Structure prediction request, 969 residues.
Amino acid sequence: MTAVTAAETAIAEPDAGVRARGVSLGRLRISRSRAIAGAVLLGLGFIPVVVPHHDFWMYIGAYIAVWAMLELSIVVVTGFAGMISLMPFTFVGIGCFASGVAVSVWGWPFWLAVPFAAAATVPVSIAVGAASVRLKGLYLAIATLTFGNALGETLFKWNAFTGGQQGHTIVRPKLGVLSFRGDFSFYVLAMLVALLLVWMVHGLKASRVGRAMLSVRDNEREAQALGINAIKTKLTALVIGGAIAGVGGAFYLALLRTAAPAGFQSPYVEISSVLLVVWAVIGGIDSAFGAFLGATALIVQQQVYQGVGERLGAWLGLYAAAILVVFLITRPGGLVQVVKIQRERIHSDRIRGGIETFVILAINVVIVYLILHFGK
Amino acid sequence: MVLATAALPVVEVASFGLAKGAVFALLALGLVLIYRTTGVTNFAHWGIGLSGIVIYFLLTSKAHTPTPLAAIISIVACAAIGAISYRLVFRYVKRTNQLVLILIALGVAQFFAALTAWGFGFEPTTIVKPWLPVSNIKVGTAEVQSTQVIAAVVAVVISLLFMAWFRYARTGRALRAVAQNREAASLAGIDEHRYSMIAWAIGSALAGLALLLIIPHTSGQSGGVITTGDTTPFGTFLIPAFGAALVGGLVNLPLAVVGGFIFGLAQEMLILAPSPWGGLRSTIAAILIVILLLMHMERFFVARAELEALEA
Amino acid sequence: MAITESDLKPEPSAVDEPALRTAGLSVRFGGITALDEVAVEIRPGEIVGLLGPNGAGKTTLFNAISGFIKPDAGRVLLDGNEIQDLFPYERVAAGLGRTFQHVKLFRGLTVEENLLAAQHRHLRSGAVAAMLRLPSWRRDEDEARERVEQMLQMVDLRPWRNRYPWELSYGTVRFLELAAVLSLRPKVLLLDEPATGIQQKEVEALGPLLKRVRDEVGCAIFLIEHDMGLLMGVSERVYALDFGKLIAEGTPQEVTADPRVLESYLGRTRRVLHSEEADGA
Prediction:
């Protein structure tokens, strides 16, 4: 292509150059928007501490942190590697009860139970991996749905594992003199672990293994033609995702202090798994940060439901399901994509973009308010 | 639906299994039709069918409509709901993003779950009147519900009629054209959206009929009971219905019907099985489904072109 | 724009061995024989063409050589080593590269990330190293980015580094695919209809480009092409395939004058130039 350079034939306009406005923290350069986002989040993180009823809010905060961990497992398996798994909550259950057994039956400290919970998910991850060799897309989704169903009938009815119908009860962990029993300390612990996992998953994306996963997701044949072992890549994603869900399951148990196996059986396990996947997509299926957004949105929605009672909850459920469908059709990239698009719109036309963003937010707030106010 | 399952003899259980099989068969038929024509795995199938039951319930209990008429109206309503679902939602979804397509179907399923829960007034149980003649038929020493026999017969007859229609009637052939090659079909003057709506309407009507055959008749003369387990996204029947559809690779109609009856019978007969096996119904169904998936049944039935059209 | 990076050259191979050879390669689908005892040979540094009407089995041959189809009989040897039992990704490691007829690449990745993904074989760090941001991960990332930077510069794609494949013209995407495959340092490069779908002036530039790739990278090229101008201009030898059998072999002039070859095209009344149909078999 000497006579005709790529420049002449490309459809898109080339980028003029990278804008370099940012903040320096020693060797680390952070873009301005990331810095702002980080500051906002840090501020939000402090809210539960300072508002009244802060033990409730810190419980909510810890809840969000735990669910963010659960969402992260989906980001890896489905977002990065493209495998549609409708059984993530089953992995959470495995982690939950494995740690429950370790702590309340074997007397292990929580810190040992967490890696054990992660390890306990591996056999099931491998089983799903075996299925994924021959099953793709919809078929894998159906297969995982039935796996979750079947495990609910077998593994989660095995009393030695589940601790009977009431499940295991554990107390929250201690580390020497540091106790995480209190709401504040557990909130901080859960948040730190969640943020650590977000950091790790984010790092995975910008790496050889992560890009292999994304390649296999986008075009498995081409990935193989470029030397990537697709089976190993998918298996890696499943094991990592399963392990993260296992860790999340351990923290889930620590958060709730007790968990009954019924939640991991049909029909609840499917509902919870689907919920996890849906909110991961809403956050942004292939974004580690999106997992956090999705978890936050999920908990907010749940709290609103619980606050309003069943009748109103159904109205809200209708509205939410409708919004969800519209959202998925127009912004399959999730909230992360919404943020990206709105930022671009604001950037290209400050006023119009700003108005648009405001209108979108306002409409939603108004509708929810109306439902809450008049639905009674 | 609540049904006592204490030590029942084989004939009665088999009869109930056939009735359930009829339901699975009709549901599977609808699923295959919708999947083949529009490429959507309709997880909302149950929800749409149950919406028909809501209308039936409201008509019979609040508007005092005679039950057979209410049944007919409900089936028509299901067709309308299905067509509207396509028109408002699935028409706009690009088939390329499989995950989003599945999630949207799940989202619509959740929508209907909430809608039906509201429709039934959030009661923990709701009683629905029967519309088929309820009586006991003696088969040897056993007694079998007439509604179950009728359900099985109706399912077979409707399936046969539908399959014939799909194969020979003009509209049916148009649907198959759309299924095989949307572009070519539109070039031939077939409006793919119109026929997709038709597919959804018919498929949903089949779902409505399926549920109407069983739900109002699980408790004999007193009708049927709807519990909170029914107003969940998948309900109690959707997964086995998918299993049945998978026997035909999600594309073959006769096998979907056969699969429906197999799943229905197998599920019920397992109750009679010795202790551990009975409780493992879901697991056995799961294993069956995974085997069916692994077998990639669809490769036996349709040309590669249509398969690619479904995946594209 | 010159591709002058010695880093791109593959490891030297044994002198007398053909770079790529197939022996008795046969593929059957149900009742149809897609490939019938096909034996081709590509010597190191050669540019060899493959022609034949649609459905002749050209892409099937490429699929069998690269491992995407399992042959029913026959052998495939790369540099004298048997590779017919290896997975596609293992054949890449052995030195085989290929492009596809309908290029899609990775639509969720930018141009730069696409090329970074192609660096997979050259890097070593694992998932744990990535998640913990260990030094081995850092080293891999630096190395990968450096190589990709050079590649971007060489193929003049730097202005498009943050664009996604669907934002580029088809010709540019093909070009990107070529760059990605070249990152693998292949000894043999299978190109499946590289000129299909791109503008005429780009087709004209493709011939010299392929020759330069061969000269500077040192790989042999086996190329399926319908555009006779390109095929004739760039190939040193040509094979002709019809109904899965090799019907002719020789210089481009010899083969295109061969009556059996002409018959295979005319007899099936298909258009020779720029057929729009997907060549599936």
Summary: Chain B has a mean pLDDT of 84. Chain B touches chain A at residues 41, 89, 92-93, 97-100, 102-104, 106-108, 110-111, 113-115, 117-118, 122, 229, 232-234, 239, 242, 246, 279-283, 285-287, 289-290, 293-294, 296, 311 (CB under 8 Å). Strands of chain B lie at 125-128, 136-139, 142-145, 224-227.
